[in-house]
Amino acid sequence: MDKKNQVKILKGFRDFFAADVALRNYVINIFRQVFEKYGYEPLETPALEYSDIFLKQSGEEATKLFYRFKDEGGRDIMLKYEVMISMCRAVAENLDKIVFPYKRYQIQTVWRAEKPQKGRFREFTQCDADTLGASSVLADAEFIQMGQEILEKLGFKKFRANISNRKFLAGLIEFAGGSSSQFIPICLSIDKLPKIGALAVKKELLEKRKISSSVAEKILELINYQGTTSQLIAKYRQILKNFPLALTGLSELEKIFQYLEIAGVDQGRYCFAPYLARGLAYYTGPIWEFEIIDGGVGSVAGCGRYDNVIGQFTGRQIPATGGSFGLERIIEIMKERKMVNLPLTTTKVLITNFADDTLDTLIKIAKALRQEDITTLLYPQTSRLDKQLKYADKKNIPYVIIVGPEEVKKQKIIFKDMKKASQETTTIDAVIKRLKPATPRP
User: Fold this and answer.
1) Ordered alpha helix ranges (H), 60-137
2) Could you give the domains of the chain?
3) How far is CA 304 from CA 239, 321, 440, in A?
4) 3-state secondary structure of 196
């Protein structure tokens, strides 16, 4: 093929063949099952939205990543940049139909014109769950419990939820001498503490954020306190006793930890992380992340309460909390670690086809198998038997049914187990009884 006309995929986009699709479906199904177990219901929103709903909520840097254009009708539209903003639009537009509290999950494709690199794509799937209309931190705590269950079911062993609170941090920064205008810049820096260390964070606070040395040192001293969760909360209560907002944040944290203890969540899998700040400006209360500890993976989910966002769309205050799991990152980790051993094909049986005068019988056998939800591939043309057996082997199809003129006369089949390299002469009814799934395929 001429190089000028050679077909190729766009950078930042991917093709998924059977093995990748199987792993993705496996992971997504676990998320879906656990989300629904906790009362979240599915929501899907369109791939295309009016650009203005994202322009109002996104910073200048984000707008550079929009796949934005005008359609044939001259409308200013774009591919969905994130599912949360699209969800807010859907809620605002259907406010009179939604029963609150509203628990929704969304597992959908989004598009961002980012520079492609390892683990970062221009088309990827977001995996979000949120509770709208509940101001109690019970909703936050239950999400943390749910996230723990998801990671366990996916097969991760060493992970934890790092938990903090924006109200607590606001009071802490005020106590240290920081101003309200410095709050978000400070949060952006201290959130990097586990990754780059205290000296690098201090340097960034001084040089990039223009925070005074005394304020920077005081903040780093405060967020580096060590102790158990109860010890830390007691210590911060004493230090921040004259800062009501911080005390409210600490009370919210205390309720979350009490819930997790009552719910029997392993205490080694969550902790109070005073440094955790999350960079997004819209968080208003509890914030948390799920971190994979082994292998230096880091955070795979960013979560928190954002009580002021939905109201910008609906015109009325609606508290909200939830989080977004890094689905693509989780899938890549599981793939690299070979955490799941999935069949390489969904086909359970290959029916060979090597004699024209047996075709009627083969069609009836295929129908009988499929009626019992046994996944069956009837070889689509007559060919040499050895070629078809090699095909089954390459495709990892576990069983083969061979029917020649002799088998038709005797109303028998040859049933071959490819893994054991064994075969037997039997009946189709016996094969169905052996291979029929315990529960019907969905």
Assistant:
1) 60-63, 83-93
2) 9-337 (3.30.930.10), 349-435 (3.40.50.800)
3) 25, 6, 39
4) helix
Which tokens go with 1? 């093929």
Q: What is the pTM of this model?
A: 0.91
Query: Given the DSSP bridges, would you call strands 399-402 and 286-292 parallel, antiparallel or unpaired?
Result: unpaired
Q: How far apart are CA 366 and CA 376, in angstroms?
A: 6
- Backbone CA torsion sign across 78, 71, 16, 366: positive
Helices then strands, each counted (H, E), the chain? 17, 16
CB-facing half-sphere around the CA of 115: CA atoms within 13 A:
0
Q: How far is CA 87 from CA 51, 140, 280, 283, 339, in A?
A: 14, 19, 18, 17, 32
Question: CA 254 to CA 257: how far, in whole Å?
Answer: 5
- Residue whose structure tokens are 């709208």: 132
CA distance 292 to 146: 16
Return the SS3 of 46: coil
The single-letter code of the amino acid at 318 is I
CA dist., res. 198 & res. 223, Å (int) = 10
Two tokens, residue 230: 């109860």
Helix spans in 268-351 (H): 311-314, 327-337
CA distance 114 to 135: 35
Place of tokens 């040089």: 207
Measured between alpha carbons, how far is 305 from 135 in angstroms, rounded to an integer? 9
Is residue 160 within 8 A of residue 271, CB to CB? The reply is: yes
Signed CA dihedral, 198, 270, 274, 133: sign only = positive
Q: How far apart are CA 309 and CA 185, in angstroms?
A: 20
Buried residues in 285-324 as b, exposed as e (16+ CB within 10 A)? bbbbbbbbeeeebebbbbbbbbbebbeebbeeebbbbbbb
Looking only at Cα atoms, what is the longest distance across the chain?
Answer: 94
Q: Read off the tokens for 26.
A: 């496996």
- One digit per residue, the tens of pLDDT, for the chain of length 442 reads 566 668 999 999 999 999 999 999 999 999 999 999 999 999 999 999 999 999 987 767 788 999 999 999 999 999 999 999 999 999 999 999 999 999 999 999 999 999 888 878 999 999 999 999 999 999 999 999 999 999 999 999 999 999 999 999 999 999 999 998 999 999 999 999 988 999 999 999 999 999 999 999 999 999 999 999 999 999 999 999 999 999 999 999 999 999 999 999 999 999 999 999 986 788 999 999 999 998 878 899 999 999 999 999 999 999 999 999 999 999 999 999 999 999 889 999 999 999 999 999 999 999 999 999 999 999 999 999 999 999 999 999 999 999 999 999 999 999 999 999 999 999 999 999 999 887 655 5
